[in-house]
Write a structure and sequence with these properties.
Mean pLDDT: 86
Largest sheet: none
CATH superfamily of the largest domain: Winged helix-like DNA-binding domain superfamily/Winged helix DNA-binding domain
CATH class of the largest domain: Mainly Alpha
Radius of gyration: 18 Å
Structural class: mainly alpha
Number of domains: 2
CATH architecture of the largest domain: Orthogonal Bundle
Number of strands: 0
Distance between the termini: 46 Å
Strand content: under 5%
Order of helices and strands: HHHHHHHHH
Shape: globular
């Protein structure tokens, strides 16, 4: 069953939409959550929360790429759970990644308008598309999937200093780009 058909099941309020979603994207959602939380039960909970969130948001939303829609929900659920569990400490790759990006992205409290958040997301997507493929993939592996620097080194055969420098330069480029675009002041 393709994404359009699954989304149509949600629009019809047909409960089989959830089982179809789980069959097609369950492993994908679980892997995103587990990559952030490193805990089986928490990852399964986030995966299930993703299905509920999809049920509650389709309709009115009608995602074209269901995988991206579900991945975004799962990632946010996992980050929220991680933040609750680590409220007093910043540890692990998620904390390090979030700390590294702190200077690039405006504080969520400053983005209280949904349209501004969407524009920021568009700008970041445009920035990423303009990067050379290897820089883009390393950046996304670090800041979307929260891979450790060591995992990235292993995956691509790069040295640790190369990965760290690539990430720093890309963050600096992102800051400069967002300043030029008027997103950061």
């Amino acid at each position: 069953m393709d994404d359009k058909m699954v989304v149509e099941l949600y629009w019809q309020r047909n409960e089989s939409a959830i089982s179809e979603t789980k069959a097609q994207y369950g492993k994908y959602c679980y892997s995103i959550a587990y990559g952030i939380l490193k805990n089986n039960e928490d990852a399964q909970e986030c995966e299930n929360d993703t299905y509920l969130e999809a049920w509650n948001n389709i309709p009115p939303k009608k995602p074209v790429r269901l995988s991206a829609f579900l991945g975004t929900i799962t990632r946010q659920k996992a980050i929220d759970k991680w933040r609750r569990k680590n409220a007093l400490k910043r540890s692990g790759e998620v904390g390090l990644s979030l700390d590294e990006l702190e200077g690039c992205i405006p504080d969520n409290r400053a983005i209280d308008d949904h349209l501004i958040a969407e524009e920021l997301a568009r700008k970041i997507s445009d920035f990423l598309r303009a990067l050379p493929q290897n820089e883009r993939i390393v950046f996304v592996r670090r800041y979307w999937y929260f891979d450790s620097v060591n995992d990235i080194c292993e995956r691509f055969g790069y040295g640790k200093s190369k990965v760290k420098m690539m990430l720093k330069r890309t963050r600096d480029k992102l800051i400069s780009y967002l300043e030029q675009e008027g997103v950061l002041l």
